[in-house]
């Protein structure tokens, strides 16, 4: 028996209800989505319209940092010694180049010397911020600039423009004192962060330069100025397609700095050195203004602006005369006989009679050693005036331990030795002024010597400017200025004003020396330069009427000599020669300018090498002074004719030389008329006289 199939049908209404529920759910979700999109669109177009308009504009327009022109540095007369000049340059933007290597290859065909610096260029480009132009070469010639612009369409990411670059119009004359600018290094960034500060965006700009050495480094923040912003229109790839000058912000130039230096004196000071090595400082004894501060040999600071070629820098660094070292304030030397005025003041302070005489026979026996005088045959009987004039070592050997090294050290510090000065730039050496305390501290710090006791034999070396004593040219100039001033402890000043505002001026303390003692020492210096028997007579005649110098020559040993060994002659190895020094002030009757000049490893000595050069520099300082020029150019007084009557009350005739041994001769030494050069005793100028 077969069963029939059963067919069951669902209710039509039930199926329709299920469809309606699904439709309702999907329709509701769709409606919610549309409603959400509508609400969001309304928010974007109405509520946040301004915000997104700003963002869109920001994507269209960018601000590019514009480095400010660096502040100008001028001398006391307004002459520019560090300024800015226009320069053509070529730049590369990494993000706009399809292939940096290929771009540099093509650029190398137009400017071949870029191929030599290819690795450095790639390093700089890769380190630069995005879309930041990186200078590839500055100081393009007009032909190079024209080539780059002609092929600009074929060099994506390459552009040429004109900008301002640092320029030093006097080359090496101010290289050490003013310094130079160079690229910012990682060490500069690290130094800023080590102070807890965030580096300025300027420091990351590839074209920005930072001050190095001298005034450029010391006043770097004042000279930098404030960066500007250039508003440019860019496309989707960030390439510049237009500029918006109305909304750009110009850069603010750095502040102008005026120094006390005089360009003419500075240039002459470097010129007189020639190929010799050393330092020179010229000061105004009235206010401490530094008119010249030169180190020789020098270097061209303009090369540092775009980067010194490695071969040139290596040549500077390896040259034995050290052109990169500032010998005016950093290099220290034994002062030699230029220190004898200091020793003489210590003698006077100790109560030693300046008329007391010491007989020089060419040396002084002390203990088991004979200390030689520079003049082998001796000077004969010497008082203090004669000992300074003739630079007699034996006189100072004989009396120095009656004053003691501590008194000599105290007087030396009062005259300016053993100090660095607030002249606005760093890098000064304090030098060494030996004393009993110094030796104890030095022994404890170095453990170099077993015996910290100071021995009297050591005082003999210090008394003539040798031994452990070391000074720099600035300190020698300060000493000379204080002796010339006679009343105040003059402090040197280098920075005159910043942005028109006077720089801080130091107050001068009184000198702790009596006028009588200073007059004795100054009279000795006047005799050095103006007495025919003085060690500096031949080289100290200015030829400027009645304006005369007062000075002191010096020759300092640079090494120890073996018994019987002669000092280095002209043809000796340079590094084995002695140093030559000269200090002076002028006019000697109304001092205005002081000079200190050191020649490192000189061919002969102070009177032969240093004094003639100092004389030439001093002449420029005097000739630039209006009062001195008026004194030089004034007509000489007419001599009365025979039998004429001199009116009562008229000025007396000029004094004549006093008789030897008279009171007038002892008070103010007056030299006889200078003989003709051929009549001078001994060899002619540039003889190897060690003093």
Automatic annotation (TrEMBL):
Compositional bias per record (Pro residues), positions renumbered to this chain: 671-691
Full protein name: Penicillin-binding protein 2
Biological source species: Brevundimonas halotolerans
GO cellular component terms attached to this protein's record: plasma membrane
Main location group: membrane
An individual GO BP term: proteolysis
Biased composition, class Basic and acidic residues, residue ranges: 631-641
NCBIfam families, A to Z: pbp2_mrdA
Domain Penicillin-binding protein transpeptidase stretches: 278-619
